[in-house]
């Protein structure tokens, strides 16, 4: 197996975790920090939200470094699926696959069926426009945008940067993430998917 | 992740938090500076329960609903999952609404 084939296999979680910390180090060393959601605010500012609301009234150029970071993530995603594509779809646990089948989502078993990062039943070009799927995408996105700014951070800013810096507010935020995530996963999403 | 049928996400985040904590401690101890000589950006957050708990819950609901937090939303664009652009646009809308409503929300 050559090097490219080797690293094209799914990475072990410890490697991913270490990779994240390396990225965090680079951001810190260059004067920034590791936190993706503030980019959502900056993007609002770029399109002029600062004219009407003080929250967006700042010079977006101060956060240019973070915009470069998040847009580079697009490039990284492209390179990963184009040149380092895993030979198999995402390996979701059998228990989860079985559950997903009960709510109408089939996990791809081969690459021809799909890469498996997102459920095709909801995200594919053929189906995303269906009302139930649009509801999930629009409402879900809105909640992420609203919640991350209200909490002042998302998983990168709070769960990783905040917790590693022993910030109690971040622990509260992460507890919040869990409450919301569990409520959605166990009660709300099943109801929507089987509606 | 929230079904507890796989350790993978916990492994990633857990490893990252532990290693980042060790790194943060070491960087502070060694008084490491940024590449242009300033202090590293470790801003402490002002304590509050309402904003972090409520904001966190709202975020968690959306995170589990779409399966993506802000970082992966952009990575998925690179994957060619074009429908994630709807999620991103809606997230921007959510952020905007937060900006409008913020003075009326408990912080």
List the topology elements.
The complex is a heterodimer of chains A (195) and B (107).
Chain A: H1 3-8, H2 13-29, H3 38-46, H4 64-83, H5 94-102, H6 120-123, H7 131-150, H8 155-164, H9 168-193
Chain B: H1 8-29, H2 50-66, H3 70-79, H4 84-101
In short:
The complex is a heterodimer of chains A (195) and B (107). Chain A is built from 9 helices and no strands. With 195 residues, chain A is mainly alpha-helical.
Any idea what the shape of chain A is? globular
Regarding quaternary structure, what we see is heterodimer
Q: What does the largest sheet of chain B look like?
A: none
Helical segment tally of chain B? Answer: 4
Tally of helical segments of chain A: 9
Q: Based on helices, strands and strand pairing, what is the structural class of chain B? A: mainly alpha
Along the chain, the helix and strand elements of chain B come as HHHH
Taken in chain order, the helices and strands of chain A follow as HHHHHHHHH
Q: Unreliable segments of chain B (pLDDT under 50, ≥5 consecutive)? A: none
Biggest interface between chains: A-B, 104 and 87 residues
Structure description:
Chain A is an all-alpha fold and 195 residues long. Helices cover 62% and strands 0% of the residues of chain A. In chain A, α8 packs antiparallel against α9. Chain B is extended. The relative contact order of chain B is 0.07. At the A-B interface, α2, α3, α4, α5 and α7 of A face α1, α2, α3 and α4 of B.
